[in-house]
Amino acid sequence: MHKNSMIKKSPQCRKCLCEFNRLEEARFWSRIMEEHALFIKLGLPADQPALREKAQEFIDRFAVLRKRLNKVCKLEGKLLEDLINAVKDIIEFKAKLLRLLIQCKAEPGSNYPLLLDHIRREAMHFLNLLRTPVAKDPLSMLLQEEVFWLRIMKEHIEFIIHLLDPSERELINQAQELRKTFSRLLETARDLESMNETKPKRFNTVLRFTKDVINSTIQLRNFKAAAFELAKLCKLLSIVSTPLLLDHVRREADKFINEMKVLLPEVKKCTSAFRENDKTLSD
Fold first, then answer.
1. How is domain 20-134 classified at the architecture level of CATH?
2. Cα–Cα distance for residue pair 170/27, rounded to 1 Å
3. Distance in angstroms (rounded) separating the CA atoms of residues 264 and 210
4. Domain spanning 135-283 has what CATH number?
5. In degrees, to the nearest 5, what angle opens at C-alpha 229 toward C-alphas 250 and 44?
6. 191-249 pLDDT tens trace
């Protein structure tokens, strides 16, 4: 399946309200959950067979759910229930591993505590999308998604920096510059989201900011894609467990870009509608 085919219909917007398509989100995020379980398993020490076996159970569980999702046109009933339960269970599994590391009750292997918290937050985001979708105005949804994804993107960069071999100085330098950019963008997004709580009818600064976010994320996506190709060709010195990890984070960047490109025009359109309404009232 083409990488964009499973996300092109989500989010969906009409009449200045936007909501996520649960089926399209489920198809995207269930693959992410399956890969999370794989990365956890690869990062666990060899002397942790029980945890490694549990991770494999999640790999198998989400693989089956993905096959079921690809056979339906609507996410409902038993499939939705099974998927929600699987996501709840993997959230707890990730939380359990994180607790063990925080309390120094297990060897970390190569699973950073922040990485476990990172993928736990992504699973919680997925769980919220699976529950009854709540339609929101495009501006609020845009800012909410920017805050969520910019943190994810910033952490991706930080993980990559720590996985690259110290001799990969040029790539590390590029990553460090990207980290600075995304740290600034995240801080700004949080400020704008807070300002938006006053419910302005138009917020033109967000339009300008989002264009910068899209351009920066495209640059990051290209960096991740290049790193993936290098790893796949055995031209990258790192402790990345599998090149799939770099493709995984590249796909998440594509998802972020896609959401922004759907929501930004809706914000512009709804802002224009508010302006026309204001003009009519003033006349």
1. Up-down Bundle (1.20)
2. 36
3. 7
4. 1.20.1260.120
5. 65
6. 999 999 999 988 999 999 999 999 999 999 999 999 999 999 999 999 999 999 999 99
